[in-house]
Amino acid sequence: MKDVRIDKWLVILLYILAYFMTIEWLKPVAELTDTGHISHFYGFIGMSLLFGLLRIPGWIVVPIKVIYITLSLQFVFRGNEWLTSEALKMTVSDIAQSLTFIWSGQWMEISYLFRTGLFFILLWMLAYLIRFWIEYRKSIMLFFGMTVVFLSVVDTFTTFDASFAILRVMVIGLLLLGLLFPLRLSAKTKTKLPIRSYFNVIAPLGGLLLFVAIVAVLVPVKEPAWPDPVPFIRSAAGLGDSGNGQGISKVGYDPDDTQLGGPFQPDDSIVFEAYVDSRQYWRMETKNTYTSKGWIQFSSEEYPESQGSFSGVIGGQVLIPPRQRAEVEMYEPLPILPYPYGLQDLQTIEGLLYKQEIDSGKLTLNSDEPIDMTYQTEFVPPEYSLKELRETDMASLDSLRFEMDEFLDLPDELPARVNDLAQEVTKSSPSVYQKAQAIERYFGRSGFVYSRDEVAVPKENEDYVDQFLFETKRGYCDNFSSSMVVMLRSVGIPARWVKGFAPGQLNRDDNRDKYYTVTNNQAHSWVEAYMPGIGWMPFEPTIGFNGISNVNFDIEVAKDDEQEQDPIKRPEKKKKEQDQQAAKRKNNQESWLLQIIPEWLRSWVTVSIIAGGAVVVLAVGLYTTRKKWLPRVAVRQSRSKSEGWETFAIQYEQLLKQLNRIGIRKPAGMTLSNYAKEVDRMRGDDIMSTLTVAYEKGLYGQRETQQDWTELRKIWEDLIIETTG
């Protein structure tokens, strides 16, 4: 009895050490990503490990964890109203919207609430793996090694100081390895190590680790014998600042684009919030001259907005021009104002005057210094006809050569292979629009990677675009957009480089009104290409971004002659469909939950796919965990049957199958008696032999022998339940 108690305390010690090693992962994540409420994650990991330690059934654990995650998300993201039904509705709506973004591949639009929920699920899986490593594998080496590597990389390449974290992890990890090694050795040799002998082995290890840790803390650290090799490695690989003194920059709007490249640190500082019905790209300026290292803009005259018009910064055909409105509240002063495409009117609440540059499209305040402000805009999102876009031809651009010369200019030293690549990518595309599309899609199909971390800076004799296209294939929006502009110009299509902000994070206020929060992380650049007869059109080459171009698919589909000659049927059919939709809206009294579910989720095809996937996942889950739940089902079924030889024979065969599932297999040719002795030797008792003797007596014709079937059933229940772990 005493040994069992000491063994339990040993398992508790192992779990405690594993917990402290796990939270060493969260500390740098919290600091580097500016994550708040980190205590919720600490509590979730501790709760998960405690449930595993206490062997609480899954049907109890799962609901408790789901409730914990839900309440944590509500508390963090809903503030003081986290327990209200309205807050819960907003959370469900948020999750449904994020699922829509995942389905459509708009990864950057996923809400922070949904991402946090996914992180909780990741921690849930990690807690399960820790239990598996400790209790079944009896080896924590993989997790220990990953933790050391993670902290080393974070300490080397980020601003996080992991010096003491690495020391703590080394002590905890080595102690865990020392505690688990005798247990693993005992399991392999199938012998039980006495507790006294166990601690005689572990005590010296613990003392040695404690002594080494104290010495490591107290002894002075000698200066390194050679300089830090990391800057040299980064420079040799073309990463970092290449000796220009810039180092790692912070993401956000910067008017100076003469030297592009290099890594960025994220910045969650809010720049502005925009109340607008649909996602918009927030345009700020364009630049027309590529220098092989970055972009500059030769600006022309400015004119005041009091003239009541804006320059033609964008083209496009608007069939019916319904104006949309956006109210923008600035949180961070900017030298120029962000505005949506199709801008028609802008009014500042503070009554400030502003002016616009014709060439770059910049809206600049008439103020000595940037200030916080709120302004309202009216705009008409441009719509494009796919039919007209596909009719754009390269010959139409010849008459615009002089007018568009600045948007075709390229450096003389641009490597020829950039032009060759552009020609190769667009050779099978007949129209101007299709050539632009081919270049836009090229990056997502050719092994390019979006990253803000390990981004190269071109050396003095290197071209920024050439380096990205052929050497690194790794970068962020500036790399993708600059490369597309240069490739477009290489094939004779006028193009310009655009700066601004991506749409931002969708939120809802207390009145359920939509608004987008735009932070410095959404600082972005993209492309505008000139379509002859149409005007400037935005394109989005950056991987992970979707753009906002609204193209009407108005290309006629082949129809029967009779249908083409009957001009009356189409309006009648359209009117009938409109009437049906109006009646459906009138009679549709769905609950709030159904109203927030996106249309794709309601379709029978999607529901069938999801249901089928759920069935497959459930079936796989049940099969992989059958050794956990099948014995309990067998026990419940046996209790409803009458006791006797037939019932006992079924019970014994179920026990043999369960032992086989957990890895205690009966070798071919071994008798049941010898197999039972082997099982008993591993367990340290004679329960299996007792059951086997009774089974063999019945099997070999002694079924009438007096047996205490009730006692045998109890013994069988204890043994088969114990095998579930």
Q: Keyphrases for this structure?
A:
six-stranded antiparallel beta sheet, 21 strands, 725 residues, four-stranded antiparallel beta sheet, disordered N terminus, alpha+beta
Structure in words:
This protein is of the alpha+beta class and 725 residues long. Among the domains are: 2-218, no CATH class; 623-722, no CATH class. Helices cover 50% and strands 12% of the residues. The strands form seven sheets. A six-stranded antiparallel beta sheet has the order 9-12-8-3-18-17, with no helix packed on it. A hairpin with a 5-residue loop joins strand 17 and strand 18 (514-519). Helix 2 (39-54) packs antiparallel against helix 3 (58-78), helix 7 runs antiparallel to helix 8 and helix 20 packs antiparallel against helix 21 (645-661). It is elongated and about 110 Å long. Residues 1-6, 238-246, 302-309, 311-319, 557-575 and 583-605 have low confidence and may be disordered.
**Average pLDDT:** 79
- The radius of gyration is 34 Å
Q: Unreliable segments (pLDDT under 50, ≥5 consecutive)? A: 1-6, 238-246, 302-309, 311-319, 557-575, 583-605
- Quaternary structure of the protein: single chain
Structure summary:
By secondary structure, this protein is an alpha+beta fold. The chain has 24 helices and 21 strands. The chain has a six-stranded antiparallel β-sheet, with no helix packed on it. It has a four-stranded antiparallel β-sheet with strand order 4-16-19-20.
